[in-house]
Design brief:
By secondary structure, the chain is mainly β. The chain is built from 10 helices and 54 strands.
Length: about 800
Amino acid sequence: MTMIKFLGGGFLKLLHAFLMLLVHLSLVLGFISGARVGDANNIRCLEGERQALLEFKKVLVDDYGKLSSWRSEDEHKNCCNWEGVHCDNQTGHVLELEVHYLRGMISPSILELPYLTSLDLRGHDFNQSHIPEFICSLSNLTFLDLSLANLSGSFPDQLGNLSHLQQLHLNRNDLKVNENLEWLSHLSSLEYLDLSDTNLRAANDWLEVVSHLPNLKSLFLSTCDLPPMSFSSLPSFNYSKSFTSLESLSLSSNQLNGSILKFLGGICSLRQLYLGNTTLKGQLVDLLNNLSGCAKDSLEGLSLPSNQISGLWPNNFGILFPLLKEINLRNNSISGTLPKTIGNLYNLNYLAVTSNCLRGVISEAFFSNLSKLKYLDLSKNSLTLEFSSQWVPTFQLNFIILDSIKLGPRFPNWIQTQTKIIMLDISDAQISDTIPAEWFTDLPPTLAYLNLSCNQIYGWLPNMLTKFENEGLAIDLSANQIRGRLPLFPTKVMMLNLSKNRFSGTISSLCKISSGFLSYLDLSENRLSGQLPNCFMHWRKLVILNLASNNFSGEVPSSFALLTQLETLSLSNNSFYGDLPLPMKNCSSLSFVDLGNNRFFGQVPAWIGESLPLLNILILHSNNLNGSIPLHMCWLKDLHILDLSLNDISGTIPQCLNNFTAMTQIGNSSSDIFHRYYFKFVDTMYTNMTFVYEKEFVDNARLMLKRREYKYDKILGLLKIIDLSSNKLMGKLPDEISSLLQLVGLNVSRNKLVGEIPQTIGQMKQLQSLDLSRNQFSGKIPSSMSELNFLSDIDLSYNNLSGKIPTSTQLQSFKASDFTTRKKT
Ligand SMILES: *[C@@H]1O[C@H](CO)[C@@H](O)[C@H](O)[C@H]1NC(C)=O
Ligand SMILES: *[C@@H]1O[C@H](CO)[C@@H](O)[C@H](O)[C@H]1NC(C)=O
Ligand SMILES: *[C@@H]1O[C@H](CO)[C@@H](O)[C@H](O)[C@H]1NC(C)=O
Ligand SMILES: *[C@@H]1O[C@H](CO)[C@@H](O)[C@H](O)[C@H]1NC(C)=O
Ligand SMILES: *[C@@H]1O[C@H](CO)[C@@H](O)[C@H](O)[C@H]1NC(C)=O
Ligand SMILES: *[C@@H]1O[C@H](CO)[C@@H](O)[C@H](O)[C@H]1NC(C)=O
Ligand SMILES: *[C@@H]1O[C@H](CO)[C@@H](O)[C@H](O)[C@H]1NC(C)=O
Ligand SMILES: *[C@@H]1O[C@H](CO)[C@@H](O)[C@H](O)[C@H]1NC(C)=O
Ligand SMILES: *[C@@H]1O[C@H](CO)[C@@H](O)[C@H](O)[C@H]1NC(C)=O
Ligand SMILES: *[C@@H]1O[C@H](CO)[C@@H](O)[C@H](O)[C@H]1NC(C)=O
Ligand SMILES: *[C@@H]1O[C@H](CO)[C@@H](O)[C@H](O)[C@H]1NC(C)=O
Ligand SMILES: *[C@@H]1O[C@H](CO)[C@@H](O)[C@H](O)[C@H]1NC(C)=O
């Protein structure tokens, strides 16, 4: 069986785009749960051990009810049936304990389970405390998993007492080694050790210690800040005594250099080598030569992604490493074309070379012996795949990732021979053709991710009739030329992006997407029309809804009120009308709202401030809104873009503006606009490999700044703008406005504002654009304005101001024509 899981709640907002991979992986791991259900037989647990377990439960916080079966009533008394408890089927002693994602301390009562051999508390939240020392007295343990457990501090030396340990998982904590790893050298039964994410900078003995663990098969030390060492000058390392059993090694995300390859090449048992993101530099040929000690004859997996490896492939690549099943060299600078000898690696199931400088034409002959290939990723290279239209490959791929290379202009026929596709990404592949209708109506049921975006695919889209096996399906057909009505999509769709096409008609057929998985719907920039159907109750998990730039009309349907997870809502550039949609009041997760350029009327509702506390961006321009700006709006402390321009809003500008903390304080809010969407695939049928794939949605909006309208996306999070222009606002521009120290653009032009410009306006040092024109401001232009060093666009015209505009350095550096300083009328 091929199993695919989409992560529930997979939308995350992250501070920086780069962090995502790490954070992402942690969350993915964080969701792999699955405590074992107790033996459903008649073995009875022993009273003493039962009491110990109840004691253990007592001091834990069980947020997810994982221990709800741990009860003392008669019928639940048998602790061998409790979730996560595994007893010896002869003696009834508790042998294994496996409970995940709890909080709080571990009770020492666990010591009253003397026969415990396996303790798995992965994902527990130890609240940054140290590894509890008493665990080291559980001397019968063969398996200990305290990974992802919010542990900190260093390791107790007594860990060395666990001399029967075969597996030790301590990765994903904040652990640190202060002196050395001496304790580890006592764990001579250890076969599997994962200390990834532990700070080992001080552990100068790490190599010495791990290399002498006689039974060690798997060693994971990624992101350990390993101390710098020159592997080329190690005192004659005796391989017949060291690393004698090592099969899998990961030193990814450490700072290493090429000298390690020669060293590792001497480990004759090595099968899997992971050295991603290790600052390896140099020519691929040299690096591989250095690796080709005896390890080359056993190596099955070679993974060197995200390094600075350049140069050509050695022609004899496939001959050097004859057993390779997995090649991962993505994100390097390798040039040339793929060597033919890769085609000899008939065990190869995984080939990933995305994001290199590969070029040339690959023909079907290259693949003729690769019948076991399951994962093919050649994307983001200057490669051309040229296959005859009759070609039937010998492989059946699960993963086809061929975006940003040349596949077109015809839609590749061979893809239609692949019946087990899980993921197909052929976006930006220069395909200029129609979608093969037969194939599209009968896609492989294994499909979970389909991306044909950014091609020139034209014509109509047939209904997608396949019954898909997976929980969720992501479909991205954006940026093509597909026209006509929306077809029927499968009920299990989770992500649907049809933006930037020529679809027309209503969207009521989408109501068939009713399994409740839909969390991402982007239909923007099409020719869709009519009213929105009232079927949002099927889409309660929606996080992103973008319907911008279509011809929709009518009111927002009442079922909108169920979208409590919605974070991004864009309805801009349509003809929606009605009172500002009241159903939106319940969408309390909203952070981005763009209703600009519609026909909404009525007052700007006060509930926006109360009900949408997470709003970052509120764009309501070009509607028919009236009334005044509600004071409650000032509650939106995260708001950094407020655009109410081109409405009929009257009243005064509230003084409480200084409550917009996001505009007063330095802060990078780019986190609000990146929505990363993660997919985790586990292929249990062929390889048991886990694949994680991500997709990004970046909020975007058209905004006026410096009198030009731009579509902003990635930098939207950095912009801090207030645009109240072209309304009927009266009264003064409140002094408080000058406490918005981070504001980049302020436009209150075309209102009826009176009084003086706040004297303190010079405080707003980040201002780049200031438009106060066409009001009734009077008095002297404040001299503090000369402190506005970044101001490059200013318009004070059509007021009753006197005095000169004090020039700042920035203003002087611009030509006079770049900024309007038209004098008062
Ligand atoms: C008892 O456990 C052993 C190994 O743990 C297993 O081989 C055996 O089949 C089990 N017996 C019963 C009756 O479940
Ligand atoms: C370990 O298990 C054995 C039985 O397998 C038992 O006799 C011994 O007491 C246990 N060790 C400890 C420290 O409890
Ligand atoms: C880890 O513990 C710290 C300290 O109590 C807490 O603030 C933090 O939220 C915890 N982190 C996780 C991921 O549970
Ligand atoms: C976590 O640790 C802090 C002190 O480091 C303590 O104040 C807090 O109560 C602890 N929380 C839990 C849930 O134990
Ligand atoms: C654990 O190891 C320490 C030395 O590190 C030793 O003094 C102690 O007796 C051991 N404890 C047990 C329970 O074996
Ligand atoms: C590798 O790094 C070590 C430690 O930083 C250094 O001593 C050694 O000279 C480096 N070797 C190469 C080939 O750059
Ligand atoms: C390496 O160890 C083996 C086995 O202990 C021994 O026979 C051999 O002489 C050693 N080689 C060196 C160079 O020390
Ligand atoms: C690469 O490794 C460094 C440590 O050397 C780490 O800080 C960084 O997060 C890693 N980057 C990725 C993308 O894993
Ligand atoms: C390969 O190994 C040799 C000898 O250890 C070393 O001088 C050279 O720098 C290594 N090549 C690379 C690319 O690291
Ligand atoms: C590519 O590799 C570089 C290090 O060489 C790393 O900083 C970057 O994050 C990697 N990019 C991706 C997309 O993995
Ligand atoms: C400022 O915002 C907070 C909530 O973020 C609110 O409680 C407070 O009343 C607001 N202050 C004003 C003057 O509106
Ligand atoms: C994948 O892992 C599962 C569970 O560990 C195992 O039952 C299955 O045989 C494995 N499949 C392959 C192809 O290795």
